[in-house]
Automatic annotation (TrEMBL):
Residues 187-248 form the ANTAR domain. Keywords: Transcription, Transcription regulation. The lineage of its organism: Bacteria, Bacillati, Actinomycetota, Actinomycetes, Pseudonocardiales. It comes from Pseudonocardia alni subsp. carboxydivorans. SMART domains: ANTAR (SM01012), GAF (SM00065). This is GAF and ANTAR domain-containing protein. PROSITE patterns: ANTAR. Pfam families: ANTAR, GAF_2.
Amino acid sequence: MFVVTEQRGGPAEDALADTGPLAREFAALTGALLASGSVADVLARVVAAVRRVVPGADMVSVTLRDDDGRFHTPVETDPAASSIDEAQYTSGCGPCVEAARADGPALAFSDDLAAESRWSDFAHAAVGHGFHSVLAVSLIPDAEPPRLPGALNVYATDRRAFTSADRDRLMLLATHASLALATCVAVSDAGLQETQLRQAIASRDVIGQAKGILMARRGLTAEEAFDVLRRTSQDLNVKLVELAGTVTAHPTALDTD
């Protein structure tokens, strides 16, 4: 339950104590995901949370896609998950693949894989490893194009292991995970852009310094000085910024040009 039925009262800072265990679990997960520093860390925390929040979960895995659209399983709680997941990646049929499709149902499940006719190869692999129920929900690691959704997958050895409440819980977990993954990607992209911006500014500054040196030593205009740098970098087959760095360190380096 998200809240307990009895009222206890107390100060505001103790309000979380008046919630049910599931609400506390999600609150703790939110804090943990905000503290996660990488995609791998987010996925590991989410998979661990699934085991705690979904009672029937005997095995958990994550399906993601590469930029070329190929599926893979980066995180699992049991090596059997990779084998089972691979059966559906190869055939293109299975709950994880369906949930991971942009035009898919967002949630796919089976209560009895031994009698499942929709995904024969996948069902055969799952039952062969002793799993008879599966529940998969869509995972959106990046809201930006090309939007390659993945899936959060839960397996159980029992038939009819998952309730409608379990489906709701897994959907909530997938939402948390999606937001955390998108944040990781956004932070990484922002860091990359900041690094590139700093490099661009540094390059511009050193080229400006080199131009100033040539203008002072040769009586050139800014345009003429830049043209000297450009032609020399082409003749020597070195990057313009590297040549500019040489000129700033050794002002006489191009005196014979």
